[in-house]
Amino acid sequence: MTDATREPIVQPERRRRRGWRWLVILLVLFVVLWCAYWFGSSWLAATAADRLVASLTANGRALACVENTTGGFPLTLDLECTDASFTDDRQGMRVALSGAAASAPLYWPGSIQGSLAGPLAVDAPIQGLSLDADWTLATAELDAGFSGVNRLAVALDGVAVTPRPDGVRLLFERFSAGEAEVIAEPVADNAYRFYVRAEDIHMTPIGGENYPEAAAWLDAAARDFGSALGTDPQATIRAWVAGGGVVDVERLGFALGDASAIASGTVEVAPDGLLSGELIVRLTNLDALPAAIDEIQPGAGDQVAQAIGAAGMFMRPVEDDPDASDLLLTIRNGTVSIGIIPLGSIPPLRL
Question: Which of 38, 79, 166, 185 could form a cystine bridge with 151, CB 3.0-4.6 A?
């Protein structure tokens, strides 16, 4: 083979330079597209906010911020509203908040994290409502997709609510909760979980001493609910109830002072909203309950003690806890009973 018929040899150095050139071009293209993506998302968010404000204004309401900022470039879209206020002229109501913020990572579309900064002031003279609230932490997380809301989580710490003297006299002078949490999320087997927890609850009645410390819990999963709350959660739940849903109750109960009642079991929801099922209720330190109730409602402790005594014949002791007893609650079409003794009724669910 002669030199003239040989294929030209591409030098390795030239090949490397060509590869780097394409890499730089792709990198520049990606940066340009990402910047367009961020500024486009920022414009869409600002447009949606303007439309919301305009819609509220047309209906006699107003949403305003003393300072409204947008940031987070290049990875997140951050919106912050300082000294936020909401007014409703028709209802004569005004709500003022120190600030609100939301952050959406653009590399994870549909995920939003938000926070609120206290204090909060509510003035509604027509309703006779006037109060102040504050907290140490108030955050929310939202995951959404084409099917609507998939997951929602809200966390509150150090919440305190104080009614003002110029409002309607509520049942308390001060209400506080150390921790509160609400979660709605999909779980395995096409079920959807609803979780609520509130602990270290304290309430000071008007002209009285603090009530005993309280706590409340709910942990339940709705079978065959689906993986999302949808774009209209109320309609989604209504459709599930109409189909006759089943709820697995992992934990439902409350604590008052040293006494507590925690229920678990399975409950069916009929299309008409009536509940049926059985719940095992674990009662702990029942002897302390009458005194705790008496602090809330003087004289009611004796009635509670009598009710505990009447229900005692249906209780079963817990082997590993001498202070606890189990009680079977039966629910039939909304009627709650212990054995053959009816306790009351649960109204049908209306959504």
Answer: 185
Contacts 24+ apart (CB under 8 A), 234-242: 234/351, 236/148, 237/351, 238/351, 241/269, 241/271, 241/273, 241/349, 241/351, 242/271
pLDDT of 6 over the 70 cut: no
What tokens appear for 149 in the block?
A: 């809301």
Rounded Cα distance between 63 and 55, Å, is 10
pTM above 0.70, yes or no: yes
Least confident of 60-74, 205-219, 286-300: 286-300
Say which amino acid occupies 142.
L
Q: Is 348 buried (19+), middle (13-18) or exposed (0-12) by CB count in 10 A? A: middle
d(CA 173, CA 164): 9
CA 270, CA 233: separation in Å to the nearest integer?
A: 19
pLDDT confidence of residue 1: 47
Query: Quick one: tokens of 279?
Result: 């719940």
Amino acid at 255: A
The enclosing H or E element of 144 equals: strand 137-145
Q: Which residues touch 49 (CB under 8 Å, ≥6 apart)? A: 79
Helices (H), 162-252: 233-242
